[in-house]
Amino acid sequence: MLLRLLAMTALFLVPGSSWAGGQAAPVAEYNLNVSFDIPASKVSGAVTVPVGAGQELSLAAGRLRIVQATLNDKPVSFHLKEGTLTVRPAEGGALTIAYEGVFKGGETMGDKNYGVVSSTIDGRGISLTGRWYPQPEGLALYRLKALLPQGYEAISEAETITKTKKENAVEFTFSFDHPAEGISLIATNRYEVTQERVNGIELFAYFFREDRDLARTYLQHAKRYIELYEKLLAPYPYKRFAVVENFLSTGYSLPTFTLLGQEVVKLPFIVETSLGHELLHQWFGNSVYVDSDRGNWAEGLTTYLADQLYEEQKGTGWEYRKQLLVDYLAYVNGGNEFPLRDFRGRTGFSSRAIGYGKAAMVFHLLRKMLGDENFYAALKAFIAEKQFHAASWDDLAVVFGKHAGKDLSGFFRQWIDEKGLPELRVENAAIRRSGSAFEVSFDAVQKGKVYALEVPITVSFVRGGEKRQILKLDSERKNISLLVDDEPSGFVIDRDYDLARKLTEQEAPPVIARLAGDEKPLIVRPVTNGGLYQTVIDHFKGKGAEEREAQSLKDAEVKASTLVILGGDNPLIKRLYGTVEVPAAGFSITVKKNPWNTGKVAGIISAKSAEEAEAAFPKIFHYGKYMSLAFDGGKNIAKKTAPSERGILMELREGPAAIDLSALKTLSDIIEKAAAKKIVYVGEYHDRFSHHNVELQVIKTLYKKNPKLVVGMEMFQRPFQKTLDDYISGAVDEREFLKRSEYFKRWGFDYNLYKPILDFARSEKIPVVALNLRREITEKVAKSGLDSLTDEEKKDLPAEMDFSDEDYRGRLKQIFEQHRSPEERNFDFFLQAQVLWDETMARSVDEYLKKNPDYQMVVIAGGGHLAYGAGIPKRAFRRNGFAYAVILNDADVERDIADYIVFPQPLDGVTAPRLMASLKEKDGRLVIEDFPRDSVSQKAGLKAGDRIIALDGAPVATMEDVKLALFYKKKDDTVRVKVARKRFLLGDREMELAVKL
Predict the structure, then answer these.
(1) 784-812, pLDDT tens digit by residue?
(2) CA–CA dist 770, 321 (Å, integer)
(3) For strand 709-717 and strand 856-862, is the pairing parallel, antiparallel, or unpaired?
(4) What distance in Å separates the CA atoms of residue 334 and residue 150, rounded to the nearest whole number?
(5) What are the percentages of helix, strand and coil residues in the chain, rounded to 5?
């Protein structure tokens, strides 16, 4: 991190150096003599600078007290207004300004606070890094003398430091023959100085006595970094370098030294990361200056050649670059985005994501374009030309263009002068045979602004191996066609994050940075003990967040928001995720994707006390790349990262699934293995007798092993459980059961398919559980969403519903797109209905087994509710943890789709006959609308428009009445159909016709 935002406006520049306007200014030597009253936190100083006759001199004095101004030892008048000191002497000579300043308790008198903390003078020592003297703008040659108590060691920007003993004091003289934008002074009586050498450079470590054991480690790493960068770039620019420990929490790089806070130097990873970053600033920022008026390039270049390079050397450079893009996604939005040329220095997370992160990615693009040799050659030339001069992005464009052998003005214009990042997507990916080769094709699409991109693609093959190449993309949409020799399994765009681009949703993990970066999240209040979270609430409300109760939130509001969910027992957790495991700690945070809008996140925060929250919460923003953190007493005890896709991944084919027929099992073998599980799920196609026959075999075999067996059935809805119980017990007959359960109204498949299972259950008194939710509710949700339900209807909903399974969502999305009708346009409602369906059935399974813990259950449901375990099985397991097995009938052989797949031979079955007439219920009447070809009813004399009154003398008014009556008929039976037929002017005529079924 650079100490200052290098504003290069034009005072005191070295001859030949350039400033913001490209002009030259005369050299100025700035002599500063200071002494200290440490108990009073006071500095007294005298500044001497040469001035010309009539030359106006302006110095930033802030709240410093100006004692007097003299020219050639004679008092002169000065003007002090709003912190700016102005002097215009009539004659030339040496102008001396005497001043005083108090820097106490971390507060400053006029300090601009360029860095992390303010300047301070107290019993711990002296740390002066900002505006602690009347300060000129721009560059000057500084000469500093400081009178300090005996026993003090001091450091400033200097290549030579001399000490002269005075009475009860020591005078330090700091000599630095290069222009600087400012000067600092760090001193204390706690230092123990350790010295080394490398390549003729003096290395020093100024560490507190209690931390002196760290000194050698820091110096050894400093040696390594200097050797690395001298090899990559150019000789180290100064004669000395020092690592200086500070009693304040600083992290600065200044010419000839880096200033690190005491808590920072103790962190074990600093020598592997931050030390090298700050040392690299000796080349970029401290010796090649930043022409800040035209953009700060130094932070991005230093980030790239330090932090990114160290990860690259470990083989994890792609992870670092991806994290830069995650941070951009998290912190940068349309309201705070700006071009790189406008970056001056870090003012927050968003500016860092641009000025450090995006800029680092730009340098990576340059390196990939030029190759390592030309890239580093360009940087060497840049340093040779611009050392101790101000440099801009334009200077970089020229030098890189020379080494690229082409004009890079277009490249720099799109990356430096325009804000934002490209948004790249892949559509219509496909594979097909092309002679002896394979053709991979897809559309590469840029959303929004179009960039000129070189896009890396990696094609992988079914039999192993891969092929990489670069695609040029400079249009909104481009069809790409690649010919490969081997059968491809898929491809990935930008697997190693070589592009500066926006991440796709699949690549973007749910991390704390995304929670912190949202400008207006929604705070969901805890159920109780809201005071525990006041520090959290205050922080987010300070960003404009709104507080709400979970019960008051509409689905649309949840979908639109990043959520701050307070309390591990918050009901919104059950509503979105079913359950979330909250770490057992004093304070924890877990970030998950908002399942109703994966572009947003939800942070689940739990605290045992207000003190734990106050100690830990402010620290979470330093852990932006993690999804989960746990703290005890403010100390981090656990952290987890979140998985996400690497690159824009498109899977096209898998190798053919194969079955070893020598290991082929029978259904009996499968049942034997599944028998050990608490729950056995059997999936069906509803209209296949062969599948129901398998289900019956499973039930009979398991019942023989364990009479305490229960059968759960999707086909029956929870309000009709009493009817099921009555039928199994023998209290009602089959006809009454079918009527009271509304079977023919609520389930569209012939009861003959399920009759053998129900008959066996009744004969053996095996309990049958109605698993499903009322059809009226699921249909209403599918049409209008959960928000459309009344309070009374919501009482039927399960408390836990997990919407976070993205694979489940993806499979449902495919089904929705393939089968939706024109009026069925809302996938969110479709998803809500399916989750509600599955969660209700899972709840029904769980409730029964918890009330009857000694029972084993067979669950019969459509295969879609069981495949991959995503529908009912995992949702029941989330509730109870019971072991289960999934058996599917006639399913595709795919990895993890089930535990067992059965391929039964086709089986015919007797079904109820039909009238072969299209019927419609209208105003409580059942009317014939039409007939199919060769209709038995039409042959018997029935006509369109006839209203059916009775079958075999039994009144009918609904479709269910007809189905129930016909269920007990067989083919070739005759049914007497009584109808009312309209006649012109004569009223309806009732007649009875015999229909042979």
Answers:
(1) 999 999 999 999 999 999 999 999 999 99
(2) 53
(3) parallel
(4) 56
(5) 35, 30, 40
Partnered with residue 683 across adjacent β-strands are 861, 888
DSSP letter string, 458-482 = EEEETTS-EEEEEEEE-SSEEEEEE
Average pLDDT (232-237) is: 97
| 521 contacts 540 by C-beta, under 8 angstroms | yes
Q: Residue 3's pLDDT is what?
A: 40
DSSP conformation class of 211: G
pLDDT by residue (tens digit) across 735-782?
Answer: 999 999 999 999 989 999 999 999 999 999 999 999 999 999 999 999
| Distance, CA of 138 to CA of 12 (rounded, Å) | 6
Domain architecture of the chain: domains with CATH: 23-189 (2.60.40.1730), 190-267 (3.30.2010.30), 289-417 (1.10.390.10), 512-640 (3.30.379), 667-902 (3.40.50.11550), 918-996 (2.30.42.10)
Is pLDDT above 70 for 843?
Answer: yes
Mean pLDDT of the chain: 92
Judge contact between 115 and 129, C-beta under 8 A. Answer: yes
pLDDT at 14: 29
Q: Is the pLDDT of residue 401 over 50?
A: yes
In whole angstroms, what is the distance from residue 7 CA to residue 181 CA?
Answer: 8
pLDDT of residue 823: 59
668 DSSP assignment? H
Task: Please report how many Cα atoms fall inside a 13 Å half-sphere around the Cα of residue 48, on the Cβ side.
Answer: 11
Buried b (16+ CB within 10 A) or exposed e, 720-744: bbebbebbbeeebeeeebbbebbbb
What residues pair up with 336 in beta bridges, in sequence order? Answer: none
Q: What is the C-alpha to C-alpha distance for residues 435 and 493, in angstroms, rounded to an integer?
A: 26
pLDDT higher than threshold 50 for residue 17: no
pTM above 0.85, yes or no: yes
Contact (CB, 8 A) for 247 and 117: no
Residue 19 has pLDDT above 80, yes or no: no
Q: What does the pLDDT read at residue 820? A: 67
Kindly provide the b/e burial profile for residues 642-676, where b requires at least 16 CB atoms within 10 angstroms of the residue's own CB.
bebebbbbbebeeeeeeeeeeeeeebeebbeebbe
Query: Considering all CA atoms of the chain, what is the largest pairwise distance in Å, rounded to the nearest integer?
Result: 133
Closest to 268 measured CA to CA, from 221, 200, 317: 221
E strands, 668-825, in order: 679-684, 709-717, 768-772
Q: Where are the beta strands (DSSP E) in 150-199?
A: 153-155, 160-166, 169-175, 185-188, 191-198
Beta bridge partners of 704: none
Q: Average pLDDT in the 473-481 region?
A: 96
pLDDT reported for residue 6:
32
Mean pLDDT over 258-277 rounds to 94
- Label residue 924 by pLDDT band (50, 70, 90): confident
Q: Within a 10 A sphere around the Cβ of 836, how many other Cβ atoms?
A: 21
As a whole number of Å, the end-to-end CA separation of the chain is: 88
Given a contact cutoff of 8 angstroms between Cβ atoms, the answer to whether 71 and 95 are in contact is yes
What gap in Å lies between CA 280 and CA 300, rounded to an integer? 12
Q: How far apart are CA 723 and CA 733, in angstroms?
A: 10
Residue 590's identity, in one-letter code, is T
Please answer whether residues 631 and 616 qualify as being in contact, where contact means their C-beta atoms are separated by less than 8 angstroms: yes
pLDDT at 20: 33
In contact, 95 and 118? CB cutoff 8 Å = no
- pLDDT value of residue 748: 83
Query: DSSP characters for 306-368?
Result: IIIHHHHHTT-HHHHHHHHHHHHHHH--TTT---GGG--S--SHHHHIIIIIIHHHHHHHHHH
